[in-house]
């Protein structure tokens, strides 16, 4: 399971996942979309909240996760909505790390709903 894994540091030997590998890992996630911006595939999902304060709190949790994993997403905070986008800058594509962090975002969201 992705959620039980830790991010591995990307180095000079790290390679972006193939489209087939990305699609296989994407099947393990719920409602994440593969988007391409500036020829770089990325993972993206928007989470909905009842108000700004709840969205802000979730953004803080995602930021803490990013620091723990030393892997940093784009986080867009709006009233009642947080959009998180993961990709590996150093390899200009998607790595297993992005899928691990996406799964962990979902777990953070689920723990907030309980």
Describe what this molecule looks like in 3D.
This protein has 114 residues and is α+β, with helices and mostly antiparallel strands. The protein has one domain (18-113): Transcriptional coactivator/pterin dehydratase (Gyrase A, domain 2, 2-Layer Sandwich). The chain has helices spanning 19-26, 52-69, 96-113, and strands spanning 33-37, 40-48, 74-78, 81-86. A hairpin with a 2-residue loop joins strand 1 (33-37) and strand 2. It is globular. The mean pLDDT is 94.
**What is the CATH superfamily label?**
Transcriptional coactivator/pterin dehydratase
Distance, first to last CA: 22 Å
CATH class: Alpha Beta
Please state roughly what percent of the residues sit in beta strands, choosing from under 5%, 5-15%, 15-25%, 25-35%, 35-45% or over 45%. 15-25%
Instruction: Give me the Rg, rounded.
Output: 14 Å
Query: How many structural domains?
Result: 1
How many beta-strand segments? 4
Structural class by SSE content: alpha+beta
């Amino acid at each position: 399971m992705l959620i039980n894994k830790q991010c591995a540091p990307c180095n000079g030997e790290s390679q972006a996942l193939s489209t087939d590998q990305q699609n296989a890992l994407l099947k393990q996630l719920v409602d994440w979309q593969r988007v391409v911006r500036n020829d770089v595939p990325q993972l993206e999902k928007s989470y909905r909240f009842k108000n700004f304060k709840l969205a802000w709190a979730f953004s803080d949790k995602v930021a803490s996760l990013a620091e723990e994993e030393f892997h940093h997403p784009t986080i867009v905070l709006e009233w009642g909505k947080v959009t998180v986008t993961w990709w590996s800058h150093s390899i200009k594509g998607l790595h297993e790390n992005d899928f691990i962090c996406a799964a962990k975002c979902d777990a953070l969201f689920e723990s907030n709903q309980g």
